Amino acid sequence: MQTLLLGPEAVDEHTPLGDVVEAVEAAFGADARGDAVMPAKSYVDLPEYEGDFRSMPAYVDARETAGWDAAAVKWVNVHPNNPADHDLPTVLGTVIYSDPENGFPLAVMDGTILTRKRTGAASAVATDHLAVEDATSMGLVGAGDQAYTQLEAVSHVRPIEAVVVADQREEATRAFVEHFSDRFDVRAGSIDEAAACDVLSTVTPVREPIVEAVGERTHVNAVGADAPGKHEIDDAVLAEAKIVIDDYEQCTHSGEINVPWSEGLLGDADVHAELGSVVAGQVQGRTAEDGVTVFDSTGLAVQDVAAAHVAYERASEAGDGTQFGLVGTDR
Questions:
Q1: In this structure, are residues 222 and 251 in contact, taking their beta carbons and an 8 Å threshold?
Q2: Are residues 150 and 276 in the same domain?
Q3: DSSP code of 132?
Q4: What is this structure's pTM?
Q5: What range does the domain containing 143 cover?
Q6: SS3 assignment, position 135
Q7: Burial class (CB in 10 A: 0-12, 13-18, 19+), 51
Q8: In this structure, what CATH number is given to the domain that contains residue 223?
Q9: pLDDT tens across 194-220, in order?
Q10: For the segment 123-180, what is each residue's pLDDT rounded down to a tens digit?
Q11: Rounded distance, CA 235 to CA 264, Å?
């Protein structure tokens, strides 16, 4: 048997965001129904290199709702100094995608683009369940790679027309505006202007809140906080919002709520639900009475499995990728 090798270009080509959003939603639902196995994300901290590694394994059984099941593990790093010091992305990842029936490694694929897309897809799923139905404006705080995917993904579930992007790096902001200028009414603006939009995605690594207020009915995708101490949204905004998280353990440890949680400013009563429970219909999402909603996104292994499933199936159908012998199959 052969293993399929998929580099970044192949993964990008074979993971259209609409398909990834659909698969990620199915994975969230499967997890909530108990049809997934997802051990806790493990960390290998490397303070001497100002970075860390994370291992994220999972199995998803979405046969009942989506007709597929799959297993994978992602080995991923976060090194914030990579762009300046090594001309590399902050996040690099590799995914091993395996047949759950027999354990054979069906594919080894680039996990960097996969991570970017499944993260955007999770925000799209949350936006679909938590944002106002007629949301047409979107703000981005941060103009890095993930900001592009956030806008692309959210525009699959809401008819976004106007976009405001805020970033202290003028060159990054200019590039973002130019990239989307033929599809959206997009402009550079302040954080306050971005935060007043119908949907807001924050994608920065800050440790002191930079979003101090949002619109009365804004839905916020808080994406940047992925380690203890990171914090983008002011505590006062979080205290008044309906908060939906992707995973209790991860979010209280390293998500947007981790700082106010550790300080006793937020607790169990302040968290409405995990997103999977909303997707599965176990808990209601947005209601007519809701004002601000916040999705705390830390990234789950079930999302990686879902995105890897899309990449493998579509690449296999297209005959793309490189087949190679990774493991011996002789007994």
A1: no
A2: yes
A3: -
A4: 0.94
A5: 131-296
A6: coil
A7: middle
A8: 3.40.50.720
A9: 999 999 999 999 999 999 999 999 999
A10: 999 999 999 999 999 999 999 999 999 999 999 999 999 999 999 999 999 999 999 9
A11: 11
227: confidence class by pLDDT, cuts 50, 70, 90: confident
Number of domains in the chain: 2
Is 125 inside any structural domain? no
**Residues pairing with 97 in the sheet:** 72, 107
Q: Are 130 and 246 in contact (CB under 8 A)?
A: no
Residue 121 structure tokens: 């897809």
Q: Are 158 and 290 in a shared domain? A: yes
311 with 263, same domain?
A: no
**Integer distance in angstroms from the first to the last C-alpha of the chain?**
13
CB neighbour class for 12 (10 Å; exposed up to 12, middle 13-18, buried from 19):
middle
How many other CB atoms are there within 10 angstroms of residue 279's CB atom? 26
167: Cα within 13 Å, side-chain hemisphere: 24
Say how far apart CA 139 and CA 120 lie, in whole Å.
14
Residue 309 in domain: yes
Interior/surface letters 147-183, b for 16+ CB within 10 angstroms, e for the rest: bbbbbbbbbbbbebeebbbbbeeeebbeebbeebeee
Structural domain includes residue 123 = no
User: What are residue 109's DSSP bridge partners?
Assistant: 6, 95
Say yes or no: 80 and 157 in one domain: no
- According to DSSP, residue 265 is labeled S
The answer as to whether 330 is a domain residue is no
Residue 28 near residue 285, CB atoms below 8 Å: no
Question: Catalytic: 41?
Answer: no
The rounded distance, in Å, linking the Cα atoms of 242 and 226 is 20
Instruction: Kindly name the residue from 41, 74, 117, 242 that is annotated as catalytic.
Output: 74
Q: List all residues 6 or more positions away from 327 whose beta carbon is below 8 Å from its beta carbon.
A: 3, 104, 105
Structural contact between residues 83 and 327, judged by C-beta atoms closer than 8 angstroms: no
Q: Which of 178, 146, 168, 139 is nearest to 17 (CA)?
A: 146
Together in a domain, 172 and 196: yes
